[in-house]
Amino acid sequence: MRYSIRGPRRGPALMATAVALVTVAACSNGSPSAPPAVPPPTGSSPSGPVTSTAAPPPSPTPTPTPSPTKSYPLSAAPQVVPAVRDHTAARGPGWKPGPGTGVVVAAKDERALADEARLVAGELGVPYRGTAAARPGDVSLALGGQGAPESYRLAVQGGGVRITGPDQAGVFYGTRTLKQSVRSTGAVPEGVVTDAPAKPQRGLMVDIARKHFTAGWIEARLREMADLKLNQLGLHFSDDQGFRIASDSHPEVVSAQHLTKAEVRRIVALAASLHITVVPEIDSPGHLGAVIAAHPDLQLVSATGRTPRGAVDISKPAAAKIVDELLREYAGLFPGGHWHLGADEYVALMSRNPEATYPQLARAATAEYGASGRVQDLATGWLNDRAAVVRPTGKALRAWNDGFFTGGVVSADRDIQVAYWTGKEIGARTPASYLSAGRKLINYNDEYLYYVLGQPNQFTYPTGRRIYQEWTPLVVRGTAPVPARYDPQILGGMFAVWCDLAGAQTQAQVADGIRMPLTATAQKLWDARKPTLSWAEFRSLAGRVR
């Protein structure tokens, strides 16, 4: 603000103006204290001229005034996706990369964290200096702390950044927050972030069986997922329309367009470097059309001669043999800790009377399980047998919810997690029926989380807005949540891309179409509470950080 003096001022008026200017200057430099009083000059007083001719007393030696310090407002949380769960505000300039900035790691953690450090250094455009001592303005990474898996602490203090976590994944997620904050605002605010995911399983599933996706496309999705702190990529690579990964044991079942094993190893290695587990799925005993095309003798045939697409005859030992050989082959290709066994939509169990429609299955069921054995018991036995093949690898197992049945002679093994996607099948069971039985569940809710190419069967492309505003991991089926007491049993969720009408969209269109729905899903799996940002604000922020 400018102060102008219009014309001559003398005596008290001139002094008042001087005092006012000193006061403004003191306030504008951020000093919290008022300026010292200014004594009136010789020959004047607050009430008028002084007529005494006595000499004025000597001026006291002025007391030095401390230089004012800059005052900062309390910081706000970093602007990132997903939002951090806790931020302790502080006063300070925050942090942004500068000419002298580097990334360093604790000496004891160099082997564990060097890759994370090099990645974030490259993203920030600063050098990685290894185990050198941190300098002002540096980013330092270290393992430590007692938090939950994948948690981290990001402290911005004294001009530098320190990221710690109890495991590599947590430290990595701290670097994602750092990177996104710099992208969104150019800096990271002063203070301390304490962050951890609400759910341990957070992912994207892609049906690469019905539609071929290139290795490059899949790798691009992995990089997007990592920035969103998602940690699982499901690959449904076997179905009726195609079998999309090269096979040594059964090359005859593989589609012309497929991923080579070298490409799969590259995908798995990139995923691991980004703390993402690849979860493979060979669906059976339904959705095996690609296998049946090469082995038509395995086709399930009804009493009337009908041949339902994709269903193998599980009464034939040869059907189990080929599936088990494939499971053993791919178990080594995918070293991660999870495996999807499929088990959905076996056509024999979608008929009103499976025993009458498929008498050979009924005979096999009674032979295996006694007079009370039914086709559902034979299917459950099939699921358990496939689980027994994969279980020695130490992988956690899951199967689609319509592969679990009640009231039979045999039940699905207790360690098989429920991948709940729908309640539209014959004899549909509510999510609570699985949860009340003690099952652990992964949420694939087809009302919110299913992106089905071509939108067949009344599926519509999901919107990020709807997921962001309405869905939480407790909303497992339809739009109603299950009781909150089941929350610990819901391990997380997966956004699923299904390619029923493969030609309906290109790879690029799929990537663009799932962008905001996947972003919203990531937010709700990291923190299921009501978001603080409006949808418009969230969408704008997502555009800045990705």
From TrEMBL:
Pfam families (alphabetical): Glyco_hydro_20, Glyco_hydro_20b
Q: Which UniProt keywords apply?
A: Glycosidase, Hydrolase, Signal
Q: Which Gene3D superfamilies match?
A: Chitobiase/beta-hexosaminidase domain 2-like (3.30.379.10), Glycosidases (3.20.20.80)
Q: Which residues form the Glycoside hydrolase family 20 catalytic domain?
A: 202-527
Q: Which GO terms describe its molecular function?
A: hydrolase activity
Which spans does this entry mark as compositional bias, Pro residues?
Answer: 33-43, 55-67
- Please list which residues make up the signal peptide: 1-25
Q: Where is the Beta-hexosaminidase bacterial type N-terminal domain?
A: 78-196
Q: Which PROSITE patterns match?
A: PROKAR_LIPOPROTEIN
Coiled coil feature spans: none
The record's region (Disordered) falls at 28-74
Q: Where in the sequence does UniProt note compositional bias of the Low complexity kind?
A: 44-54
Q: Cell inner membrane: present as a keyword of the record?
A: no
Asked whether the keyword Transcription is assigned, the reply is no
Q: Which family does it belong to?
A: Belongs to the glycosyl hydrolase 20 family.
**Protein's name according to its UniProt entry:** Glycoside hydrolase family 20 protein
What is the native source organism of this protein? Answer: Streptomyces roseoviridis
Q: What is the lineage of its organism?
A: Bacteria, Bacillati, Actinomycetota, Actinomycetes, Kitasatosporales
